[in-house]
Design brief:
654 residues; alpha+beta; Heat Shock Protein 90; Ribosomal Protein S5, domain 2; Rossmann fold; 3 domains; nine-stranded mixed beta sheet; 27 strands; 35% helix; 23% strand
Amino acid sequence: MSKSYTAGDIQVLEGLDAVRRRPGMYIGTTSIKGLHHLLWEIVDNGIDEAANGFADKLTVTIHPDNSISVEDNGRGIPTGLHPELKISGVEVVFTQLHAGGKFNNENYAYSGGLHGVGASVVNALSKWLEVEVYQNGKIYFQRYVTEVDAKGKLHTGQAVSPLKEIGESRKHGSKITFLPDDTIFDEVNFSYDTVRRRLRELAFLTKGLKIILVDERELTGGRPKKETFEYTGGIVDFVLYLNRDRTPLHAAPILLEGQRGDILVSIAMQYNSSYTESIFSYVNNIPTTEGGMHETGFKTAITKVMNDYARTNNLLKEKEANLTGDDFREGLCAVVNIKMKDVQFEGQTKTKLGNAEARVAVESVVTEKLSAFMSDLNNTQMCTKILEKAISAAKVRDAARKAKKMERAKNKLESAPLVGKLSACTGRKAELNELFIVEGDSAGGSAKQGRDRRFQAILPLRGKPLNVEKKRVDQVLANEEFRSIITALGAGFDDSFVLENMKYNKIIILADADQDGGHIRTILITFFYRYFKDLITDGHLYIGRPPLYKIAKGNKVLYAYNEEQLEKAKTKIGRGYTVQRYKGLGEMNPEQLWDTTMDPEKRSLIRVTIEDLADVENIVTTLMGDNVEPRKQYIAEYANFNKQDNFEVAQYED
């Protein structure tokens, strides 16, 4: 690997063009997700320096004006003149699309920034951007601005002046500060929690890297909020963190590491007492939420190695069939982290690894290392525990298979009419239809009367469903409320679920805005996450937000969703009003429920999404796991959807 990094190493494929006109082509969306995408582009450059051995510290600082800085102590962006463009390497990186040092493998053996568009796109979508580079004892500086000149012409991300030397420093590395353009993005307020989650994940994945997050918007004792993430154990610490609210079967995670050709493989795995598998995979620190070839290689290898172990140690008899991969992965928490060149992504969201050589490399490393681990007599007790759990899972799986077969034979699971429960809609176009899953018979009755029966179906829940996180699949299938949902969807269940066969485009959970309602929402979301994950990833699951208050004066009615909106409504409606606090959905008559919660023109829905698979898994474990205290803390801080006030007071007149 070349350790020198100069302006001549930067290859230019094309100029910066039309980023502001079509930002979605480069960052996916101009929502809050797109805003954070800008940050990840700059952070990934610093992480690449660390992953390739040139940096060990990265600092992210959110400033009071919502500008944000990313500083690393790597080699620094090249400051010399580019041999062809005759401008500094810094200016090339920030003004030329598809320009960077990552198109060959001489400067970065492994890189998360694949396309070289990151820095220039961040500049194009910011009001201003400043760069400081610390190299050779000197500080270099350049500022870029996007502004309209006196003739009304827009100048995007242009350098105010050439790169200049502004001082001396013993530091080395780069610091980039930018202010996202509020005319491009829906909002420019960085979420501390979102930034924290991703930086923590990157610290786990980049062993030995210290990441510091500072938020100058929030002061404690006169000082900015600050957190440091540094994990000497790397992905072993990551697995311990993910499993912290579960009961592990063995104390220390199993670490499997090796190299095949240019592919570095690192896997940490630990079994717990739950019934679910949790596998998180990454390539060059990029989350592969749809899995791919590296996951396939991992799954294939552990299935083969563990079946061989079970045979050799007489845990499986000669006449007994081999266990399946699902059996061996019940209760497994694993992080699969590989580094490779020339990454190829597939899938709808480009988060599925398509390189076949990755499967071969991971399968080979896991087969060799896991076989050696299980052959060590010191690990016999641990391995026996793991195999006993898998054998138990196989028995349950067989029982569940028979239960599914029996139910299908009886025509009850997927196609039987839900007499007295489901109020179906008359429309036959699934893409237009909505299914409301409503808490309680009373609210269900109001919803049935208030709905538009052409496209809205109502399924009331008469009892509290099971916590699926603590139940086996056969117990889930035996629960009447879940059976009703499966039947209503009409698209199968778990591994037989086919998204295209769903009868509805939107599944809307409608529950009271109290603690019990929050619990029911959480149980239902967990159920869909575990057994209908594609339904969530494809954007079909929603939460309805009913108001908490009705403020009335004469024929004028206002609805408020929290205390702050209540006070605004009182002021707006004037004296002589009456206030009704809804204790539950059942207190609303059909017209009120339609007006506030069901009418597509007026209602407020939250779409349930999966952005960070590891974080979602962590939240599910916190909410539905064995430890009570973390669950209470999380619900108190995050689970009250009506705390959000980014929607207006609803106003209607009778």
